[in-house]
Automatic annotation (TrEMBL):
PANTHER family: ABC TRANSPORTER ATP-BINDING PROTEIN, ABC TRANSPORTER ATP-BINDING PROTEIN NATA. InterPro entries: AAA+_ATPase, ABC_transporter-like_ATP-bd, ABC_transporter-like_CS, ABC_transporter_ATP-binding, P-loop_NTPase. It holds the Pfam family ABC_tran. Keywords: ATP-binding, Nucleotide-binding, Transport. This is Abc transporter related protein. PROSITE patterns: ABC_TRANSPORTER_1, ABC_TRANSPORTER_2. It comes from Brochothrix campestris FSL F6-1037. The lineage of its organism: Bacteria, Bacillati, Bacillota, Bacilli, Bacillales. Residues 4-230 form the ABC transporter domain.
Length: 296
């Protein structure tokens, strides 16, 4: 079921076009990742989705409500984690959450519930200015979850965090998605994070240039390659080329682009005494992304 619908949206800053005729949908309970280079338009899109700015043209709706005409109702359904933390550095984690909760007129248990979800009870009384980047991000997410939003917008939530902290944060966010049907829209530069999404949009210079599931994108835009490192390489390449089958040298190894599992099995059977070390490499999301930049 479509939860967020962006239809033909353009956004100009003065004469600069940051988004051009963007259309996308996000289904309820799914996680959608927006990928793109610096300046591609990701933050602009998030700003539009969380009603901080309005489109120059086009429509956006959330749970059936138009963002420009039903802004208050929409805002009650969203949580946002901005690229830059919006917590007050001089206050404790608890004070930050409590003040925010009062603004939402949230119930008394909301702060405890949010702190428990992000596992930050132990740093509740610490001043935000003295927290590590990972602890601060947890507090940011706890703040965004205070009103129990239906959709969470995450604008590069893990930039600058170490791999272990990123993984911990993601296991919390994914659990929320799974258990509470939370809809998530994420922008990120980390391709392994986008890999966890149900659907991906790649933006380049304000336009959507690729879209699909992570596996669909890989299947469509990348190749599976067999690399033969050791063995009777000269014999293999001679036979393959004589039979009209593509086979290339790559840095003193043999490279064969595979089109099917059957082809891989046939090669291994044909050269079982000639191959002593090989590897089959599937295309990655990074290949999809970089190939787009190269094409551009
Ligand atoms: N308030 C603004 N006024 C004028 N131009 C802006 C404004 N905000 C963004 N832009 C421009 O719009 C384009 C898209 O910017 P945006 O911040 O959306 O990109 P981004 O994909 O989020 O980049 P990054 O990954 O670096 O955060 C850029 O060319 C940027 O300079």
């Amino acid at each position: 079921m479509t939860y967020v619908a962006v239809k033909n949206v353009s956004k100009f800053y003065g004469t600069h076009c940051a988004l051009k005729a963007v259309s996308l949908t996000v289904n309820k309970g799914t996680m959608v990742a927006i990928l793109g280079a610096n300046g591609a338009g990701k933050s602009t899109l998030i700003s539009l989705l969380c009603t901080l700015t309005t489109p120059t043209s086009g429509q956006i709706s959330l749970a059936g409500d138009d963002l420009t005409t039903a802004t208050t109702r929409v805002r009650a359904k969203i949580g946002v984690v901005f690229q830059q933390s919006v917590l007050d550095e001089r206050l404790s984690v608890y004070e930050n959450l409590q003040i925010r909760n009062r603004l939402y007129q949230g119930d008394e248990v909301a702060v405890e519930r949010s702190m428990t979800a992000l596992n930050i009870g132990g740093i509740a009384n610490r001043c935000v200015g003295a927290l590590s980047g990972g602890q601060r991000r947890r507090a940011d997410i706890a703040r965004a979850l205070l009103p129990q939003p239906e959709v969470l917008f995450l604008d590069e939530p893990t930039t600058g965090l170490d791999a272990q902290t990123r993984r911990q944060l993601w296991s919390i966010i994914k659990a929320k998605q799974r258990c509470e049907q939370l809809t998530i829209v994420l922008t990120t530069h980390y391709l392994e994070e986008a890999e966890q999404a149900n659907y991906i949009y790649i933006i380049d210079q304000g336009q959507i240039v690729r879209e699909g599931t992570p596996s669909g994108l890989k299947q469509h835009y990348t190749q599976t390659r067999m690399l033969i490192y050791k063995g009777n390489l000269q014999r293999i390449i001679t036979i393959e080329r004589a039979a009209g089958r593509p086979c290339e040298w790559e840095n003193q190894h043999l490279l064969i682009v595979l089109t099917s599992v059957a082809q891989c099995v046939a090669l291994l059977q044909r050269y079982q005494t000639d191959i002593s070390r090989f590897e089959v490499k599937e295309g990655s999301l990074e290949d999809v992304y970089l190939r787009r930049l190269d094409d551009g």
